[in-house]
């Protein structure tokens, strides 16, 4: 009991209240940055340590293998051994594998991890000639239908009610869906949704299966409950039976996966289902400065009131009794900035330059993120960061433990662990092992692939440092075990690079400095968000982006996609009332005045840059575009950099051209005539 009491140390009043509510029903409404994972892991540890709940009878559920891995790691640290923390699908797979002979009459069928090929075959059988993008969209529609418990014959009506925009007519999608299901049955295969459907049906229809499952699992904790789909709720209800020992944790303001079937309605209606439930609100934000917190609160408060009561599957930004107003707990920080740019390359160049300044001032690259609405927006930022010499990591690319250099390093470490005499410190040993694969602890090499490889291996060294900090006696054996656990959960250590990520992929993460970019109407909200519910979800996506920032937050948008295009875009409507002086008449007048002045200045500067480029091209006897393209000169004129580092951040100015032309370009920008500056010798 002494240990269980110590688990409560360091919790605030609300977190402690949540931790001590060891029996359900319990609803923890946890705002962004309020320590929800801390609250639920300490609740589980306290419940187990006080013997109120047997560890082997508690099942903690979440949505990603990474989150489940983090829960397990934290619970081990708190001494709560034996508690299962799994995704819904992993828990169902484990159970169905055991009960398969009983409920399916034979061995466990093959579970298909990627259904794209099956969907493509189903489309072909229905005589459709679909391209790859269309097949992906069809697969997404089938996933959504199964998540909301819509059979093929129900799909057209349900899709229309939900405002879906399928790649083909609803009737055709339903036909492909039906063929997909038949093809799976013929092949004896299952998809991930089938695991939940079959296991829920088995519990509902087989009394012996229900009794065995419910005697094994008596207590449930569900994280991110606002993202539960009707299918996941169905299997949760099957596991629970007529009991109420359930603790749910969520925040309706962070529902951003309705497109995949998620709905906050189960969270919003939890107290209606369980009137005796204990409700705890976590509103103390320990992540972000008060300035960031206040902006997030203002965004929530500015949301229009729903016109009618929410329907099943909709996602209002708050519900009766669930509204959370975050209270910043950190010291004051800089106010969020709002910046308008003429075009996307100029926006990207400025963001890259700001990232470089932050790094030069001591902010670790891994503590900086550039977040955008759609993945296609990443390209201009990849180019700008590369040009500025800033390393970056693109979330959603190849997974950390799937990288060839990491697979090789793990094999080397595993082999070295067999003969480790434990005489040298762990970090020194790891550095020695990795040196065998060509890695060194000095400055990373230039070049994209070489640098990525170096950064990946450096992350393993950092992980060894982290392990030593928590376990000073750790050596290679313990490190290998930790890597194996993380690999199984895809819980990758941090790579030192600025993070480029979509807003959806950024959920659950946080950084010291966050740049929210491309905030224009038709991008956020996305152009295909047409219903009130869809637009409301886009607003929540911005809320998630804002609350990723700990200290510095910059919001920006560009009026045109490319230099020279008409500046016809408008800032996101969600920024109305949030950005300074956003009353439209004043802003539009100022923007027009600025545009005239900027265009005149840019035109004069662009003309001088082109004249210098002609002199340089003539001296080299090469076409002018070989020196710099027009697009790059326009970007340089727009940004008007005054230093080498700022010039490096301009899109199209790579390291070679920076070394070759930085001095004359900066001289022209400082007012020198093209003739005075003259050409530079090029070897």
Q: Any overview of this molecule?
A:
It is a single chain. The chain has 683 residues and is an alpha/beta fold. The protein has 29 helices and 16 strands. The strands form four sheets. Strands 3-2-6-7-1-8 form a six-stranded parallel sheet. The chain has a six-stranded parallel sheet with strand order 11-16-15-12-14-13. Helix 16 (344-360) packs across helix 26. The model is unreliable at 308-320, 582-587 and 594-599 (pLDDT under 50).
Describe the structure in brief.
By secondary structure, this protein is α/β, with parallel strands linked by helices. Helix 15 (290-301) packs antiparallel against helix 23 (532-546).
Calculate the terminal CA-CA distance, rounded to whole Å. 76 Å
Radius of gyration in whole Å, from Cα? 28 Å
Low-confidence stretches: 308-320, 582-587, 594-599
User: Count the helices. How many?
Assistant: 29
For the largest sheet, list the strands in their spatial order. 3-2-6-7-1-8
What structural category do the secondary elements indicate?
alpha/beta
Secondary structure layout:
Layout: H1 2-6, H2 13-20, E1 26-30, H3 36-49, E2 58-62, H4 65-77, E3 84-87, H5 88-103, E4 110-111, H6 116-125, H7 132-147, H8 155-162, H9 170-187, E5 189-190, H10 192-205, H11 207-216, E6 219-222, H12 230-240, E7 246-250, H13 265-268, H14 270-273, E8 278-282, E9 284-285, H15 290-301, E10 327-328, E11 337-341, H16 344-360, E12 368-372, H17 378-387, E13 392-394, H18 404-418, H19 426-435, H20 448-470, H21 476-489, E14 498-502, H22 503-506, E15 511-516, H23 532-546, E16 549-558, H24 584-620, H25 624-627, H26 630-639, H27 644-648, H28 655-669, H29 674-677
Parallel strand pairs: 1-7, 1-8, 2-3, 2-6, 4-5, 6-7, 9-10, 11-16, 12-14, 12-15, 13-14, 15-16
Helix pairs in contact: 2-3, 4-21, 5-10, 6-7, 6-9, 8-9, 10-11, 10-12, 15-23, 16-17, 16-26, 18-21, 19-20, 24-26
């Amino acid at each position: 009991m002494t240990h269980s009491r110590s688990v409560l140390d360091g919790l605030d009043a609300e977190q402690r209240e949540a931790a001590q509510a060891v029996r359900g029903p319990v609803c923890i409404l946890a705002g962004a940055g309020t320590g929800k994972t801390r609250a639920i892991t300490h609740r589980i540890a306290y419940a187990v340590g006080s013997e109120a709940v047997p560890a082997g009878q508690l099942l903690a559920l979440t949505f990603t293998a990474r989150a489940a891995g983090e829960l397990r790691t934290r619970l081990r640290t708190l001494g709560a051994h034996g508690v299962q923390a799994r995704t819904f699908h992993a828990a169902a797979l484990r159970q169905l594998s055991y009960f398969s002979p009983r409920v399916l009459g034979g061995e466990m069928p093959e579970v298909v991890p990627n259904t794209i090929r099956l969907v493509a075959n189903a489309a072909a059988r229905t005589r459709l000639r679909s391209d790859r993008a269309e097949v992906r969209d069809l697969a997404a529609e089938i996933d959504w239908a199964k998540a909301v418990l819509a059979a093929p014959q129900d799909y057209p009506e349900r899709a229309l009610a939900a405002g879906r925009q399928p790649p083909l007519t609803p009737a055709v999608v339903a036909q492909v869906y039906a063929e997909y299901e038949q093809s799976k049955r013929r092949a004896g295969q299952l998809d991930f949704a089938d695991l939940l459907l079959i296991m829920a049906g088995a519990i509902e229809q087989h009394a012996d299966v229900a009794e065995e499952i419910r005697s094994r699992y008596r207590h449930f904790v569900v994280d991110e409950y606002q993202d539960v789909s009707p299918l996941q709720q169905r299997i949760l209800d099957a596991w629970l039976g007529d009991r109420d020992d359930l603790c749910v944790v969520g925040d309706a303001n962070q529902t951003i996966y309705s497109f995949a079937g998620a709905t906050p309605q189960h969270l919003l209606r939890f107290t209606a289902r369980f009137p005796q439930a204990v409700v705890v609100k976590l509103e103390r934000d320990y992540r972000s400065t008060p300035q960031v917190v206040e902006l997030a609160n203002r965004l929530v408060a500015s949301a229009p009131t729903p016109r009618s009561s929410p329907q099943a599957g909709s996602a209002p930004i708050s519900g009766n009794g669930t509204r959370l107003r975050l209270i910043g707990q950190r010291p004051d920080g800089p106010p969020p900035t709002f910046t308008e740019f003429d075009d996307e390359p100029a926006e990207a160049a400025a963001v890259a330059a700001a990232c470089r300044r932050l790094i030069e001032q001591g902010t670790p690259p891994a503590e900086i993120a550039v977040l955008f609405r759609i993945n296609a927006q990443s390209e201009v930022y990849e180019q700008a960061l590369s040009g500025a010499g800033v390393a970056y990591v693109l979330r959603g690319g190849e997974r950390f433990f799937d990288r060839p250099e990491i697979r090789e390093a793990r094999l080397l470490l595993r082999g070295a662990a067999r003969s480790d005499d434990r005489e040298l410190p762990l970090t020194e040993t790891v550095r020695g092992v990795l040196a065998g694969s060509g890695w060194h602890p000095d400055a990373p090499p230039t070049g994209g692939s070489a640098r990525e490889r170096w950064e990946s291996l450096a992350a393993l060294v950092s992980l060894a440092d982290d392990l030593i900090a928590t376990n000073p006696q750790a050596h290679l054996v313990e490190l290998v075990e930790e890597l194996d656990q993380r690999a199984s959960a895809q819980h990758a250590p941090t790579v030192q690079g600025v993070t480029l990520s979509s807003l959806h992929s950024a959920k659950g993460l946080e950084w010291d400095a966050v740049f929210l970019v491309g905030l224009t109407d038709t991008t956020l909200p996305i152009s295909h968000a047409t219903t009130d519910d869809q637009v409301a979800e886009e607003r929540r996506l911005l809320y998630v982006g804002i609350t990723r920032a700990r200290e510095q937050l910059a919001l920006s948008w560009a009026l045109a996609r490319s230099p020279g295009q008409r500046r016809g875009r408008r800032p996101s409507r969600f920024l109305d009332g949030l950005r300074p002086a956003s009353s439209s008449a004043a802003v539009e007048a100022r923007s027009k005045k600025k545009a005239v002045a900027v265009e005149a200045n840019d035109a004069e500067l662009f003309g001088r840059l082109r004249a210098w480029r002609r002199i340089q091209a003539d001296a080299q006897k090469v076409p002018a575009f070989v020196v710099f393209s027009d697009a790059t000169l326009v970007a340089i004129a727009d940004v008007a950099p005054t230093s080498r580092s700022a010039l490096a951040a301009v899109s199209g100015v790579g390291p070679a051209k920076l070394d070759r032309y930085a001095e004359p370009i900066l001289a022209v920008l400082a007012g020198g005539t093209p003739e005075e500056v003259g050409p530079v010798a090029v070897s």
